[in-house]
Amino acid sequence: MQNKTTHSLWLVAPAAIMVAIFFLYPLFFSLYSAVTLEDGSLTLAHLTKAFSLYSNDILFTIAIVLASVVVLAILSITISAMIVLSPFKSLVSLLGLLYRLPLFIPFIVTAQMMRTFLAKNGLMNNAFVASGMMTPMDTISFLGWTGIIITFVWKQLAFSTLLLSGAMAALDQNQIRAAQNLGASRVRILFHIMLPQVFPTLGVALVLSTVTMMSVLSVPLMIGTGTPTMMSADMAFRVNSYGDYNVANALGLVSYLICSGLAWFYLRQSLKDKGATA
Amino acid sequence: MTRLNIENLNAGYGNKQILNDISLTVEQGEMIALLGPSGCGKTTLLNALCGFVPVSGGKIKVGNRDITTLPAENRNITMVFQSYALWPHMTVAQNVGYGLKVQKVAREEIEERVHELLSIVRLAGLANDKVTTLSGGQRQRVALARALAIRPDVLVLDEPLSNLDAKVRLNVRHEIKALQKQLGFTSLIVTHDQEEALVMADRIAVLNKGQIEQLGRPEEIYQSPKTPFVANFMGAENQIVWTPELESSILTGNSEALFVSRPTNLTANQQVFFRSENVTLITNTSRFDNDNSVLSLRGHVMQSAFFGNNYRISVQCGEHIIQADHTCDLPANTPVLLSVPAHALHVYDIETSFKSNAYATIQTSTSFQTI
Predict the structure, then answer these.
(1) pLDDT for B353 beyond 50
(2) Chain B residues closer than 8 Å to A179 by CB
(3) What's the domain range around A124?
(4) Eight-class DSSP state of B355
(5) Which of A48, A126, A200, B236 could cross-link to B231 by cystine, CB 3.0-4.6 Å?
(6) Which residue of A has its CA nearest to B70?
(7) Interface of B with A (CB under 8 A)
(8) What residue ranges are annotated as transmembrane (chain A) (predicted)?
(9) Per the domain annotation, does A49 fall within a domain?
(10) Does A48 reside within a domain?
(11) Predicted confidence band at B118 (pLDDT cuts at 50, 70, 90)?
């Protein structure tokens, strides 16, 4: 028995060592460097500096992410509901193909695409001008916070819709039929029957999307207008321009705390639901 | 609750036609069982009634209202599902009251109605429980209460008892029947279990390949099945094809012959169906009376199975295997004599080029009793 356990330990050792060296060590080292001085003593100086320089950017980041997540939730619920509940099957299969496309486009390509699309003399405004709906004087640039939100939503919509429509399709079809023959319309079925049951999946999609948005560098750099900007851009700036790993890591710690706050909120919510049903 | 009238209904999925020209009238307060093997279209018929499957021809009327093309939510026909289809995120009371909430009935009225229904289905104390904590039988009663809450014109039940274990099934079966008598709802119940259909229904429609083979009271269906399919489906699992060779063998009167006697109205090119419970089995094979009112034949015991109140004996008679009920166990290879009284035989004509077991070749059929 003892022998067997030792054997199994040896089997997981290579994977465990890889995780420790390439993931755990860098993570803890960056957290460590965020709260220590060069001589190894604990300090809050880096965090204080990060807040004094970048508190606007931190708020900006939170606002952008929250706004994106809200829009994302509304759009992905709408699209999934259309896919699952619509009686027009051919339209649904077209929609099913279209919404998946952004999954296969990298963030940096998306950002570049949005730049040419949303700029003051970009594709979108040119199309409006050409169709006579606007004069060139009236055009406004969407580059800036709106552009960042549009890009995040456009890119993450595929992912969260994929999860959500999967969860909706997995519901027992008879539950929907039962509501239908009791007189419920499709909208009622969506809000009363389907959404309460796919809420945990929506939570997962939104939490994972938040983490992704917090970590993307290309979008704020290419679509943002400079100040305020997102924390990922600030971190890159601290490292590239000043070699200041301590403040960059302090910012990293803050974004890590924001993400884990969300994850905690989500876990607590889903545990509450589970506790009630079990 | 009103009368349901189905006229020449055709329906299917895509290009596949499932229901062919179904016509059926369910009277007010009547319960009709749709009985048939899997794939015969019985569930499709219910789905077409509820509006879940589009109808390609024919009409569905409830009272004087034509509902053929109405969307499911406007039909006022509710369904009880085999899988219960309760909403797990709601309590028992919320499930039952949902239809009324959709109709914007006042809250007090909903509470009152839910309370009334829960006491009818004997779940009075469980109103605030989550449905996920209930047993199968309780869940199906919640589903029944939910379907009845909005006072539907027609209630349809899709194999409501199939997911329940044997004892609970008997209870719920009894309860549904009692409720149906008490409240008098017009209903259609789908089942593949002939006993369930016999016990619960006022009339039975036996379906085969998307058509109604026979419609009648349970006694009629059981005692005088009109077609070989109905006979076989209603438990007459013993089948003998009466070929000219068999007919001539019996006339020679050989004491070693397989068949000892046959009733007078069984003639060549007919097939005969009978139930194992109607077979009398005796081990004294020398007793020989050429009785023209019974079908009797010789054979050897193949195996016997204990059924509780009796043994089901499989007897090899030439190329036929006949099932017979008997009071005691018999060892294999015991020679036996089987006899079936004429009134228990269901006899049908067959085409001369009959190939064994091919129902498709049957053109005309008559029940033995009607001759």
Answers:
(1) no
(2) 87, 98, 102
(3) 55-277
(4) -
(5) B236
(6) A181
(7) 50-52, 72-79, 81, 83, 85-89, 98-99, 102-103, 130, 132, 143, 146-147, 149-150
(8) 9-32, 58-85, 97-118, 142-171, 198-225, 245-267
(9) no
(10) no
(11) very high
Farthest-apart Cα atoms in chain A, separation: 81
Domain ranges of chain B: 4-233, 238-349
Q: Nearest C-alpha of chain B: how many angstroms from A181? A: 5
Residue A30 has pLDDT above 70, yes or no: yes
What tens digit of pLDDT does each residue of A166-215 get? 999 999 999 999 999 999 999 999 999 999 999 888 988 999 999 999 99
Do residue A181 and residue B51 have CB atoms under 8 angstroms apart?
A: yes
Given its phi and psi angles, is residue B241 left (phi above 0), alpha (psi -120 to 50 degrees) or beta?
beta
A227-256 tens-digit pLDDT:
789 999 999 999 999 988 999 999 999 999
CA-CA distance, B79 to A174, in Å (whole number)?
10
Q: Are residues A20 and A104 both part of a single domain?
A: no
Secondary structure tally for chain B: helices H, strands E: 9, 19
- Residues of chain A by 3-state class (helix, strand, coil), percent to 5: 80, 0, 20
B368 has a pLDDT exceeding 50: no
Dig out the tokens for A57 from the structure: 């950017």
Backbone torsions φ then ψ of A258, nearest 5 degrees = -60, -45
Residues A164 and A242 in one domain: yes
Query: How many CB atoms are closer than 10 A to CB B50?
Result: 21
Residue identified by tokens 């051919």 is A90
Q: What is the DSSP string of B24-93?
A: EEE-TT-EEEEE--TTSSHHHHHHHHHTSS-EEEEEEEETTEE-TTS-GGGS-EEEE-TT----TTSBHH
Nearest to B79 among A177, A183, A184 (CB): A177
Question: Which of B175, B168, B173, B172 shows the shortest CA–CA distance to B197?
Answer: B173
ipTM for the assembly? 0.80
- Residue in B closest to A193 by C-alpha: B87
Residues 6 or more apart from B345 whose CB is under 8 A from it? B263, B266, B272, B273, B274, B295, B368
